[in-house]
Amino acid sequence: MKVLIVDDQYVSIKKIQTIMEGFCECEAVDNGQAAVDAYKSAWEGSAPYDLITLDISMPGMDGTEVLSTIRELEKEKNIPKEKRVRILMITASSDKETVITCIKAGCDDYLVKPVNRKIISKKLEQFGLTVSKGSAEEETVRKMIETTVESFKAGEIDLPSMPQVVQEIQNIMNKSTSGVAELTQVIEKDASISVKLITTANSPVYRGVDKIQSVSMAISRIGLKECQSIVSAIANKGLYETKNKQLKKLMDKLWEHSLACAHGAKIISKKVSPKDEEKAFMSGLIHDIGSVLLLKSLGEIVSPKTTFDEADLINSIYEVHTSFGATLLDKWEFAQDFVKIAKLHEWTKFDPETEKDVLIANLADNLAHKIGYGFFDKGEIDLPGLDSIKLLEIDPDVLDKIGEEVKTIMEESTGAI
User: Which of 90, 221, 300, 321 is the right S-S partner for 290, CB 3.0 to 4.6 Å?
Assistant: First the structure.
């Protein structure tokens, strides 16, 4: 059986390949046009594919367009229905409109992420292929993620709220007449944030001759704009708390990744879009918010006695975290710029019309992985080869320096936030 896997995300391709390559001849491409080209080439070479697994959400030509194009090519070639390639659509959304669109476009079946061996093998058995089932742990992981997403959709999960102080600071920073006194008044409303801000001002990154002992002194040393970023980081850190010991280390790792990404995004923004550096910092903090809330929700519903494979859990979260994160930010009434960043930051292909903030978030995310602050297993990352670095016109040598700067900041600020 010859299979073509089509997905723009490395982790998703790797997961499906791992499941299928033991009993299938697998090939993989990471975009829609490449899928159509591969289909044509295989047919012309008299070695057509028996099955195509096709992700719906991809940049450029999406999965539904690929599906329609292939079905049109089959009609042109007068390929009988029983001999046409089987197409299995894979989507992070289970809404009826998406499913109906796929069926109308001619798919043979569909899967909703996160997928696992048992789910894929059950579908393939319908195509006459018998494959081994997944482990009990793997099924547990899928069920945990699936239950969490469905509970959220049903309104059964209470979302934690973004601390009010973040919005109040944003309002103050938007006023040209605001200064240290106004900012101090807002920050001092939250004792925890006040203490951590003072601690940060005394850290190696900002430390001066005199020891900082008040919020106003901390703001004066750090600066108004920089203070905005730090308070946003302190406030967001609270979202990464969980009482579940199994998930605590994953939360800590995800926090380090998000913070490194925020610092990277801010520095990159200074190079290409200086006026938006604070927005870039916030984008870096919340780009993986879907992963944060999935882990946080799991920590509340999973028994401490439940066993699961950590790698399976992370990969399953990866499959749904972008769409889940975008939905969360939408419900929190974040600007659509942030919603788009959460949804698109994992894409590998971008065109010249892509918004700069999406490109910055993508580049910062990959840079964080490259310098040792990754969360998902993305394999070896070729930074100079990324569309985002090319479209932002950043020299790879400059990016290396940014990476070193981010590492220094992370090392010197350990424990401050």
Answer: 321
Beta bridge partners of 6: 29, 54
**Mean pLDDT for all residues in the chain:** 86
The letter for the amino acid at 317 is I
Same domain, 173 and 235: yes
Q: What is the pLDDT of residues 93-118, one digit of tens each?
A: 666 677 788 888 899 988 888 887 77
Q: Last residue of a domain, which of 134, 155, 173?
A: 134
CA angle 94, 97, 99 (to 5 degrees): 55
DSSP code of residue 2? E
pLDDT in tens, 49-98: 999 999 998 888 999 999 999 999 999 999 998 889 999 999 876 666 77
Determine the Cα–Cα distance for residues 320 and 336; give it in Å rounded to an integer: 19
Query: CA–CA separation, 260 vs 410, rounded Å?
Result: 7
Question: What is the biggest distance separating any 2 CA atoms in the chain, rounded to whole angstroms?
Answer: 81
Query: What distance in Å separates the CA atoms of residue 243 and residue 104, rounded to the nearest whole number?
Result: 46
pLDDT at 130: 59
Look up the CATH number of the domain holding residue 33. 3.40.50.2300
CATH code, 304: 1.10.3210.10
pLDDT tens per residue across span 202-259: 888 887 778 999 999 999 999 888 888 888 888 888 888 888 888 899 999 999 999 9
CA–CA separation, 402 vs 395, rounded Å?
A: 11
Q: For 28, phi and psi rounded to 5 degrees? A: -145, 145
| Per-residue confidence (pLDDT) for residue 138, from 0 to 100 | 62
Residue 52's φ and ψ, nearest 5 degrees, are -125, 125
Indicate the DSSP class of residue 107: -
Written as six digits, the tokens of 339 are 């919603």
What residue numbers bound the domain in which 365 lies? 164-412
Same domain? For 129 and 170 the reply is: no
3-state secondary structure 125-169: HCCCCCCCCCCHHHHHHHHHHHHHHHHHHCCCCCCCCCCHHHHHH
